[in-house]
Amino acid sequence: MKKMERLDKILSHMGYGSRKDVKKIIKDGRVEINGETIDKNEYKIDPYNDRIKLDGEEIFYREYIYIMMNKPKGVVSSTDDPINRTVLELLEEEYLVFNPFPAGRLDKDTEGLLILTNDGKLAHELLSPKKGVDKTYYVEVEGYVEEEHMEKLDKGIILDDGYKTLPAKLEIIESNFISKVKLTIKEGKFHQVKRMFQALNMEVVYLKRISMGPIKLDERLRLGEYRELMEEEIKLLKEKS
Q1: Over the stretch 135-150, which tens digit does the pLDDT of each residue have?
Q2: Does 50 qualify as catalytic in the annotation?
Q3: Per the residue annotation, which of 28, 107, 160, 161 is the catalytic one?
């Protein structure tokens, strides 16, 4: 069954301006549907099958967006914050019209992979503890990390509030005064990685998420930069979730 939507709503949702801006665009005769100029805002179309042109250029409708961001320190993974700068403030207006939100959070002082989307179902699946989606972090921690720590984390570790974590996988890159490791967890409790190391009497000094499920952080993205996920990445994400 076709899903018919108002033309002004479709164009606004695609980022061509506010409803007021879009109404003027339509009224000015700049929009064609299936080769016919349409100047009525309330005109209904099937956005997936009708051919839409704006100023002679064909445009393609999409309902959802999926963005990979290399989150920098100092911004919060939130859609709104009265005090701090949010990750949404790093996005261009063309993406904000889709009302994206972070699929999961990273602490204010944590860097790395953050997925932003307006696909609520996918976000829920990614974050559901039942799904157990792997999240891998690169961690620098004070103190020597040894095999005994790997064993403790693998069995699950008790946090400061008495919660016992699910088994976590620790990979030691370098054991030193400041050790470098990779840690993979399946949960996302508040400050979880930091609290797991605190339970081992160690302090995290640097934390960066490098993957989430099948999606790895694009190393070409500098801090604060982002890009849309590629079709293959979206497919992998949906298969995993």
Answers
A1: 999 999 999 999 999 9
A2: no
A3: 107
